[in-house]
Design a protein that fits this description.
Layout (H helix, E strand, L loop, with lengths): L1 H19 L7 E12 L2 E11 L6 E7 L2 E9 L14 E3 L3 E2 L5 E4 L5 E7 L8 E8 L4 E9 L4 H5 L1 H5 L8 H10 L3 H4 L32 H10 L15 H14 L11
Parallel strand pairs: 1-10
Antiparallel strand pairs: 1-2, 2-7, 2-8, 3-6, 3-9, 4-5, 4-8, 9-10
Bound molecules: heme C.
């Protein structure tokens, strides 16, 4: 009994403390936000970091972009290895994202993603958008976010990592080294023709990099680099390489493009 009273008393103290330092709108920050076109079949994807100071638990329950009609919160399936002819979708919708005790939630390629569609104007002509995040407490926070090429995202989303990356253009030899170091050959084969030791068990089969046409996310350098970060449209058992740096993904892509015959256009894509 006394234990229960003590617990109740402790709760009261917590409530009083919480009331005394109720976080106001200024203690929620939406930072490092950017939007990029054409991610996994959606018109655009938005990424950002949300920070909350203060102990009150809260949950992200909605996202909106003023310039577009629909926004959904999505995340990657934990187990994406396909077990039949129909690969599972790469991403699943989430309705709520609890904010952990660190007070920080990060939306980033390979993780939580805001899929955006139904823009009022063509995306190519929009240079920034207004992103609003809604919390279960009723609080809302908005920010302006630039519309960027996928390749330029890292500088905004993770400036620390971007600053330490080499500026030199990736070489084919470096790409080949990363291809071996990251185990790509176990599925795609030592020469990239799709016949690695693991390939027989996989449906659909790993891509043969010599042939550009079947690439679902595009076979250009920028497109391959983006696919390594966000996944293959429609799923399959191709792993994500979101943990690599932008420069490493471009270096891998450089090697893959060099295997194509004839090599596909290396020019940039939106
Ligand atoms: C576990 C096996 C596996 C590993 C390891 C793997 N891949 Fe794949 N990869 C696949 C499969 C399977 C597909 C075909 C997926 C599909 O069609 O849905 C694929 C497709 C691709 C594609 C084509 C995407 C598209 O647009 O269609 C690229 C590019 C690619 N892989 C690059 C790589 C690179 C680079 C590595 C190493 C960093 C790697 N893969 C490691 C299995 C693998």
């Amino acid at each position: 009994m006394s234990h229960r009273i003590l617990a109740a008393a402790r709760r009261t103290v917590v409530v009083v403390l919480a009331a005394a330092c109720t976080p106001n709108a200024a203690s929620i920050r939406l930072e490092r936000a950017a939007l990029t076109g054409d991610v996994l079949g959606a018109e655009a994807a938005a990424y950002f970091t949300l920070r909350i100071d203060g102990a009150r638990p809260d949950t992200i329950v909605g996202l909106s972009v003023a310039e577009a009609g629909t926004t959904s919160m999505q995340t990657y399936q934990a187990h994406r290895v396909s077990d039949g002819p129909d690969p599972r979708p790469t991403m699943v919708r989430v309705e709520q994202i609890p904010i952990p005790s660190t007070g920080t939630v990060r939306f980033a390629p390979g993780g939580y993603t805001a899929m955006v569609s139904g823009f009022w104007r063509p995306l190519v002509r929009i240079d920034s958008i207004t992103l609003t995040v809604e919390l279960s407490s009723g609080r809302k926070v908005s920010t302006r976010a630039p519309v960027l090429r996928f390749d330029d995202l890292e500088a905004v989303l993770d400036p620390g990592a971007a600053a330490t990356e080499p500026h030199a253009e990736p070489t084919v030899a470096d790409g080949e080294r990363l291809y071996r170091a990251n185990g790509c050959a176990s599925c795609h084969g030592a020469t990239g023709d799709g016949d690695g030791p693991v390939s027989r068990t996989l449906v659909p089969a790993p891509r043969d990099f010599r042939v550009a046409a079947p690439f679902k996310g595009g076979a250009g350098l920028d497109q391959i680099a983006r696919t390594l970060a966000v996944g293959v449209p429609g799923g399959g058992s191709m792993p994500l390489y979101a943990h690599l740096t932008n420069h490493e993904r471009r270096t891998l892509a450089r090697f893959l493009v060099s295997l194509q015959s004839p090599p596909s256009d290396r020019s940039s894509t939106p």
